[in-house]
Amino acid sequence: MSWLSVVVVAFWAMLPAYLPNNVAVLAGGGRPIDGGRTWRGGRLLGDGKTWRGTIAGTAAGAALALALDAVAPGVGDAIGVDLPGFPIAAAIALALGAMVGDIAASFIKRRLDRQRGAPVPGLDQLDFVLGALALAALAAPTWFGETFTPAVLVVVVVLTPILHVTTNAIAYVLGLKDEPY
Ligand code: CTP
Ligand code: MG
Ligand code: K
User: Are strands 38-39 and 42-43 parallel, antiparallel or unpaired?
Assistant: First the structure.
């Protein structure tokens, strides 16, 4: 595979994990997952992790995977790249894993005394990637091994923070997000 094909496959395979956090920003609000509970002097997760955002984000990511599945043969033919499909377990795991990774990061941030919205460089850009990859590896191990080759994984780890910083800056400029990170 050419390096450009590897980049395209990495981006395509991660799209169901990239969408959920952005949908959560748009759909978020309402009851926080932690119900306001505190632990060791700080909020368990904080008001930034809501049921509505999490459910909408997960549903959107999984739905995107199924939509990508439908168009993969046509798009793959047109651009000359063998695009991966998404078994249902992989579709759900990528989307849910992205949300769970982000929630786990908020748990860690609250333990580090970072208030809601405070940036933690590195964690903010990779939490959802680690969650998505870990859950996908557990839920669909064969598919995961075939899709996320070492080269694809390297591209994911390099490409994701760049995309994350860019989309968040755009969301901030558009007034959709309170902070540009
Ligand atoms: N959001 C949500 N549910 C989630 C994730 C995000 O409702 N599971 C919404 C919230 O409105 C949140 C916004 O998306 O404020 C931005 O997400 P994020 O940057 O992850 O949350 P923060 O508010 O920065 O909170 P934290 O410091 O805990 O990351
Ligand atoms: Mg934030
Ligand atoms: K986050």
Answer: antiparallel
Kindly state whether residue 180 falls inside one of the protein's structural domains. no
Name the residue among 165, 171, 123 with its Cα closest to residue 25: 171
Domain interval for residue 25 = 3-173
Please report, for residues 12, 76, 85, 148, the alpha-carbon distance to residue 70 in angstroms, rounded to integers and kept in the order given: 13, 11, 9, 20
Which residues are registered as beta bridge partners of 138? none
Q: Which residue bears the tokens 């395979």?
A: 13
DSSP, collapsed to helix, strand or coil, labels residue 43 as strand
Using 70 as the pLDDT threshold, list the residues of the chain that sit under it.
none
For residue 66, the model assigns a pLDDT of 98
Q: Phi and psi for 29 in degrees, rounded to 5?
A: 130, 170
C-alpha 143 to ligand 1 mean position (Å) = 30
Alpha helices in 46-149 (DSSP H): 51-79, 88-111, 123-139, 141-147
Residue nearest (by alpha carbon) to ligand 1 atom 5? 49
Ligand 3: centre distance to CA 74 (Å): 34
- Structural domains of the chain, count: 1
SS3 39: strand
Q: Is the ipTM of this complex over 0.95?
A: yes
